[in-house]
């Protein structure tokens, strides 16, 4: 059985999503700061890989995303900027 390019990339994206979920959970449960820092470094690297896979899928038309309305983007930015304060 051969997998299509789209299936391979979708599998890679799903694997990265799972990896970031696990690393996030592990980092939340670390007792030692040095271990937590190492896990957070891995989490950051996995997010970078996930973003690369997503961008590749998007560029090839395998993961289309509609353009967002400016007003909706502004609403979300307003909502989450309040969380940061």
Can you describe what's shown?
The structure is a single chain. The chain has 85 residues and is an all-alpha fold. 78% of the residues lie in helices and 0% in strands. The protein is built from three helices and no strands. It is flat and about 45 Å long.
Mean pLDDT: 93
Radius of gyration: 17 Å
Q: How is the biggest beta sheet arranged?
A: none
Order of helices and strands: HHH
Tally of helical runs: 3
Shape: flat
N-to-C terminal Cα separation, in Å?
52 Å
Give the number of DSSP strands: 0
List the uncertain runs.
none
Helix-and-strand structural type:
mainly alpha
Q: Percent range for helical residues?
A: over 70%
| Beta-strand proportion | under 5%
Topology record:
Blueprint lengths: L4 H24 L4 H27 L10 H15 L1
Helix pairs in contact: 1-2
Task: Describe this structure in a few short sentences.
With 85 residues, the chain is an all-alpha fold. It has helices at residues 5-28, 33-59, 70-84. The protein has three helices and no strands.
Supply database-style keywords:
85 residues; mainly alpha; 3 helices; flat
